[in-house]
Description:
The structure holds 2 protein chains of 2 kinds. By secondary structure, chain A is of the alpha/beta class.
Amino acid sequence: MTRLAEQPTLNPTLDTPSILIQGATVINPSRQLSDRCDVLISGGRITAVEKNLTREQNMQVIDATGLHISPGFVDLHGHLREPGSGHSETIASGSLAAVAGGYTTVAAMPSTEPVADSPASVRYVMDRASQAGLLRVLPISALTKEMQGKQLCDLAALRDAGAVAAADVMRTITDTQVLRRAMQYTRTLNLPIFLHAEDPALSAVGLMHEGPVSLRLGLTGIPRSAESTIVARDAQLALETGARVHFCHISNAESVEVLRFYRGLISTRNSPASLTADVTPHHLTLTDESVDGGKEKDVSNWGGRYATNAKVKPPLCAEDDRTALVQGLADGTIDCICTDHAPHYPASKDTLFELAPFGIIGYESALAALHTALVTTGQWTPERLIEKLTTAPAAVLGGNWGTMDVGAPADITLLDLESRYTFDENDLHSKSRNCPWLGQQMTSRCAATFCSGNPVYAQIDVFPDGLFCTRGDS
Amino acid sequence: MTHGRADQTPPGTGRFPHRHLLGVETLSRNDIALLLDTAQSFKSKLVAHPKDRLDHLKGRTLVNLFFENSTRTRTSFEVAACRLGADVINFDVGTSSVAKGETLVDTAETIEALGADFIVMRHRASGACEYLSRQVRGSLINAGDGAHEHPTQALLDVLTIREAIGRVEGVKVAIVGDALHSRVARSVIWALTKLGARVTVAGPPTLVPFEFKTFGVRVSHDFDEATHNAEVVYLLRIQQERQSGAFLPSLSEYRALYGMDTDRLATLGAGTLIMHPGPVNRGVEVTRDVMHAPQSRILGQVTNGVAVRMAVLTVLSEATPVQELVV
């Protein structure tokens, strides 16, 4: 995986002073470490994770008492909207939103205008990410030209330009033969294919999950089979071709079952195929009731009934689906959590439900939404949550991120897990506001983010006098 | 239980804790009873003095905002408002580009400038009334939004049932037809179940999904089973285009399985009411003979329609101050 090491990284200047972070609890999933430790950063890398490190001259010190430190979060699915829709998000604004949410590595989907289906467009994303200079942006290229599902892109050239995966995102390749050839072809490139499973004939004009809520609201439903039949088809193709495929945003219990079946088959047959999958924070924490305003019928921010901020593809499903996704993540059927950060400029969501675009922004709400729903309720430990946001997504691409091992790039996130607050749209750094958790009580927030040793984000309430000043009675 | 940003405004001292009438689902049994009782008293006045004008809504303005055509419902609201002394503006939206979402916001601003106390709205999109209700100061009355609800139609139908049978509680009702696409079906189901009727919804599985059980009704796919011992058979319109979506093989097959003709009428009790919200597809869901049978309440519910709409306007007006004209 040397190729991945060549990904754009931030270059700390060599004379940057070392940073000593004291007093926090370190959660490092790659070592099963969860203990009170100090962390030393030098030359952009982690140089020590030990108890009671000695403060030396030239060291900058951060008082992180009461906080947790984890590897920087890794996301494999975001729409940064540049080029083409800079009013919704840019690579710069998306980068800021990502580091504010604790992410230090994010993948950018090719769903731009024009579609990222050429080496030049892939390099453009990397250049713009370098200019923003906040975190590592991994470009994902289209799989077929203009994502039309007909002609394959020059996949070797795209890989060499820096694409970490290929995906016709937001749509399924309906020509099964094209997808099968793509799987055969990419095997030798070791380029994973990211798949969006949705049968367009079944989802058709559907606006939300098909069930009692869609019936009540009189909105056309999307059945579970719109996703699960395509997961089955594509898993079968992967098994046959030995391809490396990753299913994005698995959303319902049926798809989890199909995935579990095919992962079992691959294992018992010793198939060279590799199946991985992710699930979003919204599918893990919300249901289709959110479209009807949730239990509280919250009316803030295009909530209430017909809440356009809960309009997303794949749709939010029933409670049984949500618990199946949580279970699937726990037993390894689903590998990791990815946001599917999908910004849409505010006015586009302030409209009739059927006219609003599908999508939810996720970078800045992922930690808090998951922590509030799964950790605060005692279902998950913080360690499990951190693993699914760091080492687990990194492993899908085989990257050396998402770890705090000595020698790794100092991509780390300081977490204030005790924090309780109302999630407010003014806290968002994204250009868009399409977030279903706005106005809700949340626990935990990102306190500060470091990418390659550079402080790229600090939360003002946690560090009111700056990152390197002594904090009050924390 | 209330919904919508507007409903957060204290509704005042009225007996009816809602500023808008967006659907029947969000009404309580008492809310529905209040509307029916008020409608009943208006009906008595209408029957006794058909030409009398009342002054309950003097100085108030009603705007009819119909993005889909409906002469019947629009006229009924217009008559109801005039009888109560309100001014009526028929806002001309027709079938033009106004039906788009962005324009809906612009339309709302215009209506606000007119000082509308009531906006009666019909729109092809489910949730359109909910959306517009958050943009206006007056009361929004849903006259049909997509496949969601059509509350005043349901109220007038329930009034008709209550008049004919003398009660709604415990009455056995079979609703037959395309419930999936029907806003009337949803409103009628909510109204009937809240008042304690025993409701069965019947039709082909493609048009009557089993999830209707979550509305508190029985689901059946057999006409005879569903209508057995029914005191009311409520037929729904079958639209021609359902064949193209593979919901139905053909209208003739639908007629054979679920169409109401004199043979099927003969299997029902002599007192069984036959109802239909209109407009009727004659010869598909119901034959001409049945329409004109003595048990039929398909035609001639005009007075109940006006009375129910007078009740809705009056009850809503109790909670809201008169809106100022913005010049």
